[in-house]
Amino acid sequence: MKKTLLAALCAATATFAGPFITWNGADENTYAQVETGLRNEWGGFWFTYGDDGDGGASTIRWDVEPSPRYTIDWLSPIVAECKGLCGTAMLSKGTLTYTPFMGLGFSVVGQISEKDRTLATGDASSWGGLCVTYTSDTDIALELGLGEVIDSTINYANPAVSLPASKTSNRMVFSWSDFKQPSSYDGAVKFDGDAAAKQLAIVRFKMQAAPGDYHFKICAVGPKDGTCPEQCGTPSSASIRVARGTSAVNAVLNGRTLGFTGIKATATVEVMNTLGQVVMMGFINSTIANAATINLASLDAGIYMVRVNGKNVNFAKKIVLR
Q1: Handedness of CA 139, 102, 31, 65 (dihedral sign)
Q2: Rounded-to-integer distance, Cα 13 and Cα 83, Å
Q3: CATH number among 3.40.190, 3.10.50, 3.40.50, 2.60.120, domain 2-223
Q4: What pLDDT digit, counting tens, does each position of 222-254 carry?
């Protein structure tokens, strides 16, 4: 078992560089994908999971009709309409021998490849922890998923913190050290929050309670020092979230020309579609005339993520091409 676990850790661990941009359902053009800064083209999309594999009959009734389940961002219509992920967890035991549950989550990195659906892990230590804004009729366990091999090895006793039931907006901030395995867990393989953050596969919101209907709304989630709002439905203070103190940086879309201000040197630009695929790359240089713009005329209409990286700048912004 130890050799299998070690092999899984080595094979499924990925390291990337980039900021975790706080996902806020109230921000303009937000959809059902979290920009973790560690994700690949398959990562960051919200998904649901439940107790059906063990005979449970729990499900989620959404406040808004989602897209067909076979689309990768099938929850985006819900985000657009309710400024978050809102619905009712309808918990039902079926033939379960334990308390029923339903949950939501997003992958930190994504599956290893198009053919290999094993989830890769990433080092999220730099996030410092997590912030969350939500409402819920029942307590929610905010869990750190480590991939199927490790999760099963520790009998799914993942490090977690509790989001207490709250009918009104509640903002909570946690350090990695706040995440603990259940006190009842007595297995040989131990993980605290700091260790889990170094090989994180999934962030999960698990609602487990007595059979019944429980309304919830996940409004925002981000790194510990992110900009999770105090109230659900409150947009972020700026449409561009800036790292490394570069608050003067801005990006302005004029037709199909994307211009940048506040960048004092050079930087690279990546434009990604809703699948996380890089569809255009560019290089901007503020010291050269007309070199601080990117022409997007060749792209189809739709939603894109623009990511800019340079010596003194690192930010991302969602844009809509008409």
Answers
A1: negative
A2: 33
A3: 2.60.120
A4: 999 878 999 999 988 543 343 333 345 677 888
